[in-house]
Amino acid sequence: xxxxxxxxxxxxxxxxxxxxxxxxxxxxxxxxxxxxxxxxxxxxxxxxxxxxxxxxxxxxxxxxxxxxxxxxxxxxxxxxxxxxxxxxxxxxxxxxxxxxxxxxxxxxxxxxxxxxxxxxxxxxxxxxxxxxxxxxxxxxxxxxxxxxxxxxxxxxxxxxxxxxxxxxxxxxxxxxxxxxxxxxxxxxxxxxxxxxxxxxxxxxxxxxxxxxxxxxxxxxxxxxxxxxxxxxxxxxxxxxxxxxxxxxxxxxxxxxxxxxxxxxxxxxxxxxxxxxxxxxxxxxxxxxxxxxxxxxxxxxxxxxxxxxxxxxxxxxxxxxxxxxxxxxxxxxxxxxxxx
Length: 339
Fold this sequence. Notes:
- With 339 residues, the protein is of the alpha/beta class.
- The protein has a single domain, classed as Aldolase class I (TIM Barrel, Alpha-Beta Barrel), CATH 3.20.20.70.
- The protein contains eleven helices and twelve strands.
- The longest helix has 32 residues, at 291-322.
- The radius of gyration is 19 Å and the shape is globular.
- It catalyses: (S)-lactate + O2 = pyruvate + H2O2.
- Keywords: Flavoprotein, FMN, Oxidoreductase.
């Protein structure tokens, strides 16, 4: 199966909102929500994508020829590449009737684990979403990251027990999900969290805690104060607040603020192995890719996950070789150009 075949297959079954575009750049879905689109003007998903495209690569092939390694060591695990599949919840609401939440996670988590990377799983008002997601992670040897919504502390405590039983190597919270329109005024309640509340949540977790939805140095420092092991520089794909900067625009100053004291992930419009390279050059430790993995699952199932993962990894390997960088540690700001 080719990636083009995956896209063609997905277009016939991915629901009314996503168009399974050749390049997932946010233009066709725009401000269409529910669905994969962005909030308000619908321009932030587009800005995320286009900002990465405006960063260029500095080629350097005057070097000794070596084998390229994309291996990543993180939280006591070794991964084949520095990218992860992002959390996607409410798949029937956003992407149509083909898969239940559990069926989607079964394919994604196992497919990623087979390829040596990991998938983040989602959360929802239906308690079965977290139960099923953590069960899938458990069945795959703990290779997955459950993502808990910012519920009230009592609900979070219950969900953390499921996380612990799964054997997951880390857990995340998408703190910015407080702005999702379909989570407002629902029960259990979801909303922003203070540093002290986050400290309590970190203690509940007992495994590396990743806070997703950081867009400022101040936010990164507060996450560090709370005891987070990692952060995700993310504006939730433009789906929670209109008119934010792109993640690539704020990543360098957040990297500077963190000073290497936490792991830094970044998401938002990263669509190729070359984009992954750019993110690492700007200081990220790893990236998260969400919407294209949905297309891979809908268009090819387990084989789709394999094909897409290998596509991104191959593009990263090629970029690294053409820049004279043969391990992830060698990638830095000298390999990119920003006009």
